[in-house]
Amino acid sequence: MAVTDPLVSSQWLAERLGQATISIIDASWHMPGSGRDAAAEYVNGHIPGAVFFGIDEIKDHSSDLPHMLSSPAEFATAVRRLGVRRDSIVVVYDSHGLFSAPRVWWNFRAMSHEESFVLDGGLPRWIAEGRPLEGGWPAPEHGDFKARPVPTLVADLAAMRRNVETGAVQIVDARAQSRFAGAGPEPRADLKSGHMPGALNAPWTNLVIDGALANDDRLREAFAAAEVSLDKPIVTTCGSGVTASLLALAFARLGRPDVAVYDGSWSEWGARNDTPIATGDA
């Protein structure tokens, strides 16, 4: 496998459709209240050979937080049912272009599966290029995936408390500036407004152009504007860990595959009464 970039092109994938080593995963997910059903949309049309990864189904069911990372055993069982093998080259996409696919890409990396990539431009680009789709819900042969957790890629509440207290790790928040500043409402009920003290704001929408990740220069400009140093430790956060993973993908593109994601994100921090909150710009 010669690809080192975390992204692969639609041409690259089209040339490999049907190969046994390629596991294509539809990771489409929509925000609560959107009125869209990602699984139903998948049945109506997906990239040939793709299986559906339910972000709200393949998760830690013992947690009341949304789509938290599964235990290694639960994750392995779930993706084996999707046909993923230890030697699979996993290619993840979503129906937005680039939104939720990085979350599943990060799931695989957090379980030591380095051969995981995101389809640049996702399903919209695939369709725009006139490439084939298929419908239905396939029943793939079970894979033999093995999961080994990578703790350094996952930040929990205790780690974030230390980060806030010491400032040793840059906290980069992917939410919109209005939500970060505490001026805009949170989409989930019962969450306070604002951000973690000391956090930096790099809205994910500044990193995506026409449903694809911006080029390296644009990514560097966006992070520089947010006063993020690529030479210092970084952890990303957002509302529920989805767009935080998109930031992690962008950092990986710029040579920082070591960036951690705060899994609970604002759904955890903003719901508690014992976590400090700041408002206004960083």
- How many DSSP-defined strands? 12
Percentage of residues in DSSP E strands: 5-15%
CATH level 4 superfamily of the largest domain: Rhodanese-like domain
Q: What is the CATH top level name of the largest domain? A: Alpha Beta
User: Which structural class fits the helix and strand makeup?
Assistant: alpha/beta
Helix percent reads 25-40%
Count of discrete alpha- or pi-helical segments spanning 4 or more residues: 10
CATH topology of the largest domain: Oxidized Rhodanese, domain 1
The strand line-up of the biggest sheet is 1-5-4-2-3
Number of domains: 2
Gap between N and C termini:
41 Å
Offer a quick outline of the entry.
The protein has 282 residues and is an alpha/beta fold.
Account of the protein in words:
The chain is α/β, with parallel strands linked by helices. The chain has two domains: 7-149, Oxidized Rhodanese, domain 1, CATH 3.40.250.10; 152-269, Oxidized Rhodanese, domain 1. It is 28% helix and 13% strand. It contains ten helices and twelve strands. The strands form three sheets. It has a five-stranded parallel β-sheet. Strand 11 (234-237), helix 9 and strand 12 form a beta-alpha-beta unit. Helix 4 packs across helix 9 (243-253). The longest helix is centred in the C-terminal third of the chain and has 11 residues, at 243-253. The chain is globular and about 50 Å long.
Outline the fold blueprint:
Blueprint: E1 7-8, H1 10-14, E2 22-26, H2 38-44, E3 51-52, H3 72-81, E4 89-93, H4 101-109, E5 116-119, H5 122-128, E6 154-155, H6 157-166, E7 170-173, H7 177-181, E8 200-201, E9 208-209, E10 212-213, H8 216-225, E11 234-237, H9 243-253, E12 260-262, H10 265-269
Parallel strand pairs: 1-5, 2-3, 2-4, 4-5, 6-12, 7-8, 7-11, 11-12
Antiparallel strand pairs: 9-10
